[in-house]
Specification:
Elements: E1 9-20, H1 31-41, H2 47-56, H3 62-70, H4 72-79, H5 101-124, H6 141-144, H7 149-170, E2 175-201, E3 206-215, H8 219-222, H9 225-230, H10 243-257, E4 261-263, E5 269-272, E6 276-277, H11 286-309, E7 310-313, E8 322-331, E9 339-368, H12 376-389, H13 392-395, H14 408-415, E10 426-433, E11 444-447, E12 451-452, E13 457-470, E14 480-484, E15 490-493, E16 498-502, E17 518-519, E18 522-526, E19 528-541, H15 543-584, H16 588-608, H17 617-620, H18 642-648, H19 652-661, E20 668-672, H20 682-685, H21 693-700, E21 703-709, H22 715-724, H23 736-751, E22 771-775, E23 778-779, E24 786-789, E25 801-804, E26 813-822, E27 825-828, E28 835-836, E29 842-846, E30 852-870
Parallel strand pairs: 1-5, 1-6
Antiparallel strand pairs: 1-2, 2-9, 3-7, 3-8, 4-20, 9-21, 9-30, 10-19, 11-18, 12-17, 13-16, 13-19, 14-15, 14-18, 20-21, 22-29, 23-28, 24-27, 25-26, 25-29, 26-27
């Protein structure tokens, strides 16, 4: 049967080949990576000088110490990275071109050691060693500037991450190749499949047959990424049993259980090959063989999966799922002969072709924490959950001993409670002139008016303040007698006439201390002709009353704290639920776009340094309005004059070059596990969960290897940029990376001329295969058009390009067809090389848009059709 070209399915594919370069250049070059490494170290003020002294006394780093100690220019270059310098103040990346990577890495490790020592001293220093400003003694100027241990820990983490990433970036050759490929699946007809059932019938026998057909599909395989991203695309409206859709599902299934490579541009899957020495490739190369093997395995698994999902039975089995039942009555009309009814499945035949249609040079970069920014939501969620896990007793720790007259108002303010004031001291003054005294020796008594002590109070202090005059006309030795009855206060004195004493001290018997109720004070006088007596009585709350006040305050604090706690619990629950919904309620397309953005941002920050400003502060200052919501820029800001625009485009050329030179639609990244991150974060990272398995792997990645695909035509410019730090320079002729860039570019031009860009649209017309012929003629290089004798010129088109001769001959070239005179001749543009086909024919190939066919095979999937045969030939039954 003819193939149905209109029903052809296409799945893009990539084969990645890392290269091994014999002449290592990792000691020199890599200017941009070294420049980014210095910025990622986040050098603090003074660290370079301290590290320089450390190198001067170093024994284990003799080679690097010798270079660093004698290179004043290098130290001046490093000092420019200290603090937070403006981008314009930094040296050109090319300044690092000739500095060995081992030297820079040794410097970075010394800086890390100094930071670790400083952090250890800050943590272990006793409080008595603190300076007046709170700073602890340290060995680095960075720590002298601040006592904040958190900043010191961040500095250590920056050093660890920078050193790890730099080692990863310089330990292997960053250059590789990416073969652009495509699987094409075309329906190639329907064939009789295997025998499903046989029903024998004796002469005149009649029987009823029930036929059932069902499809039980695992949701994991039915939910195709193409459907999720494009809302029921072309493959989404086909049968769930067709091969192309099942292949897509199988790819996604494999990716869920194997963290390998992710492609941001929509290529279905990536085949990785082992590192190989650089050499020219053809259709029988190792990478092509590996790609064929991987593609065949994928389609075979998909085909097998389709067969498992699609079943047909001639029995009466009950199956959960969608079913269709058909009942037939079969009769054998013969009186003498038996017969047999055979049921066969009908299988769709698929022609599967694997094309290679392009070659790109790649550049590997290792970046730390690719999902670092996306983890911020999980950090917030973790903080909220920790707060929610706290019990009320963890939050409210006030005891009775914490409550006093000095603290109760602050506690009430802290917990938002209305607290009663403490019981206040009450003071009463009683007494006055003593009546009835005169010049006699008669005893006189005086009693003050009664004092009523309030409930819950008792007397704590009684002070007497008296003036007593002496009677002069009686024989009393010049003394007077003054007694406070009930106390030990008894004054007989001729010299003193004024008294001011505290009667509640032990000397006077603790007079009336802790008395309650109604109390009056009585006094005794003798030999006194006049007197004025006043008693100052201080009353304070009893111990029980004061305890009751403390209990009242504590209850008010407790109730307010409890109300606040449970209200906060509800708020936390709502925040956690909203955050979880925000994390999980994102469509697949948005997730992949966010990850691609983070990969691109991570690459830019590694190449240009963590200090790279996507929007420099001096540009932000030119903006007005609402910066938080990004609605501030209108282009009419008063500060955006010619000077302002110049500032704004400070990085424009470099950023534009990076965006143009890299095919961001074909970037591949390999995720590495959490233990490639800082050890302190391991426990948190490995517990991150997300309903999307790809996002979960991205969030848990401690590091990522990014394979940047260099756009066709930018090979030499890109290598000049990363090696010399300037996209205007060209690498020296002997540089191995320049040779690789030239050969990859030349190979792609010769083997895949005139092909469309990577990832062609699914709605494009059917792609034609290459036209291949050969020539046995002998032709010489010629300045004019040359007519070649070929086996057949059928399919050759004037204006198309043809590849003449093999790559191995060293004479291969690409020329344009100018004429097709007859079925055995073609005329091409002037030939650069001579070609001799007399001993062995040389090929002449007109490449098709599909590229070079590197693999072809057939797959079969079941259909809903059933074939019936009466007494079929047993020899032909499968």
């Amino acid at each position: 049967m003819p193939e149905i070209e209109s029903a052809r399915r296409r799945i893009p594919k990539l084969t990645y080949v890392p290269l091994k370069v014999d002449t290592a250049t990792s000691e020199t070059g890599a200017s941009v990576v070294k420049f980014g490494y210095m910025r990622n170290l986040a050098l603090q003020l003074g660290e370079v000088d301290v590290a320089r002294k450390q190198f001067s006394s170093s024994v284990g780093r003799q080679k690097q110490a010798s270079l660093l100690s004698t290179s004043s220019a290098l130290w001046r270059t490093l000092k420019k990275f200290e603090g937070t310098p403006m981008p314009s103040e930094l040296p050109h990346p090319g300044a690092f071109a000739k500095i060995p990577t081992a030297t820079l890495l040794a410097f970075g490790k010394v800086v890390l050691e100094l930071r670790q020592q400083a952090l250890s001293q800050m943590k272990n220093a006793p409080p008595s060693t603190l300076a007046s400003d709170g700073a602890r003694p340290t060995v680095t100027p960075m720590a002298l500037d601040s006592a904040n241990i958190g900043k010191a820990m961040n500095a250590v983490n920056s050093g660890i991450i920078a050193n790890k990433s730099f080692e990863a970036n310089v330990s292997a050759t960053p250059i590789g190749m990416l073969n652009l490929e495509r699987l094409e699946m075309t329906p190639a007809g329907i064939e009789r499949g295997e025998l499903l059932a046989t029903i024998p019938l004796a002469p005149k026998e009649e029987t009823a047959v029930v036929q059932k057909e069902w499809s039980v599909t695992t949701k994991e395989f039915t939910s195709i990424v193409t459907d999720s991203l494009e809302n029921y695309s072309e493959t989404g409206v086909t049968e769930n049993t067709e091969l192309a859709q099942s292949t897509n599902s199988q790819i996604q299934h494999s990716n869920q259980f194997n963290i390998n490579a992710t492609v941001s541009g929509g290529c279905g899957f990536v085949t990785g090959t082992v590192t190989t020495a650089f050499g020219t490739q053809d259709s029988s190369s190792a990478s092509a063989a590996e790609s064929r093997k991987h593609a065949v395995q994928t389609t075979r698994k998909a085909s097998s999966r389709v067969k498992q999902e699609h079943k047909m039975s001639i029995s009466t089995t009950t199956v959960t799922g969608t079913s269709e039942t058909t009942t037939r009555t079969l009769v054998n009309p013969s009186d003498t002969n038996s017969m047999r009814i055979d049921y066969f499945s009908m299988m769709r035949k698929w022609r599967v072709r694997l094309y290679r249609y392009g070659l790109r040079m790649t550049y590997d970069v290792a970046i730390p924490e690719p999902g670092g920014t996306l983890r911020e939501a999980y950090k917030l969620l973790d903080d909220l959950q920790k707060q929610l896990a706290l019990s009320f007793n963890d939050v409210f720790k006030v005891t009775y001993g914490d409550i006093n007259e000095q603290s109760y108002l602050q506690l009430g303010s802290d917990y938002g409670a209305q607290v009663p004031p403490p019981p206040t001291e009450q003071v009463v003054v009683v007494g006055g002139p003593v009546p009835g005294l005169g010049d006699d020796d008669i005893w006189h008594f005086y009693q003050t008016p009664p004092v009523s002590v309030p409930d819950g109070y008792w007397i704590t202090d009684v002070y007497v303040n008296a003036m007593v005059g002496i009677a002069p006309n009686h024989n009393h030795d010049g003394n007077h007698h003054f007694v406070v009855i009930g106390s030990r206060y008894d004054k007989t004195d001729q010299n003193n006439w004024g008294y001011n004493d505290d009667l509640t001290v032990p000397q006077y018997g603790n007079f009336m201390q802790h008395f309650t109720g109604s109390q009056a004070i009585s006094c005794f006088f003798q030999w006194a002709n006049s007197a004025l007596v006043q008693f100052t009585i201080k009353m304070n709350a009893t111990a029980a009353t004061y305890e009751q006040w403390i209990a009242t305050v504590w209850n008010a604090l407790y109730n307010a704290a409890q109300n606040t706690f449970y209200a906060k619990q509800q708020t936390l629950n709502a925040q956690i639920q909203a955050l979880q919904d925000q994390i999980s309620g994102v469509d697949t397309l948005t997730l992949r776009r966010e990850e691609s953005d983070e990969i691109m941002k991570g690459v830019l920050r590694w190449l240009l340094g963590t200090g790279f400003d996507f929007m420099p502060p001096n540009v932000v200052n030119l903006f007005g309005g609402d910066l938080t919501h990004g609605v501030s820029f209108t282009g009419n800001e008063p500060g955006l004059d010619s000077t302002g625009w110049t500032t704004m485009f400070n990085y424009e050329e470099m950023v534009k070059f990076i965006n143009e030179a890299i095919e961001w639609e074909n970037v591949i990244y390999f995720l590495y596990s959490y233990f490639w991150d800082v050890p302190e974060s391991w426990d948190f990272i490995r517990q991150i969960k997300h309903p999307d398995s790809t996002r979960q792997a991205f969030l848990r990645a401690g590091s990522a290897r990014i394979v940047l695909t260099v756009r066709k035509g930018y090979e030499q410019a890109w290598m000049s940029f990363v090696e010399l730090g300037d996209f205007g320079q060209i690498l020296p002729p002997g540089h191995p990376y320049m040779t690789i860039a030239q050969e990859i570019q030349a190979y792609d031009d010769k083997n895949y001329p005139g092909i469309p860009p990577a990832n062609p649209g699914r709605t494009s017309a059917g792609l034609a295969d290459a036209v291949v012929t050969a020539s046995a003629a002998k032709v010489s290089a010629n300045a004019g058009p040359v007519t070649l004798v070929v086996d057949s010129s059928v399919g050759m088109v004037v204006g198309n390009q043809v590849i003449i001769d093999t790559l191995e001959s060293g004479l291969q070239e690409v020329q344009k067809i100018t004429a097709v005179p007859d079925p055995t001749h073609i005329t091409v543009q002037p030939l650069t090389n001579a070609h001799n086909g007399t001993s062995m024919e040389f090929p002449v190939i007109q490449p098709g848009e599909s590229g070079v066919l590197i693999g072809e095979w057939y797959e079969y999937t079941p259909t809903s059709g059933t074939d019936i045969a009466v007494t079929s030939n047993l020899a032909t039954i499968a």
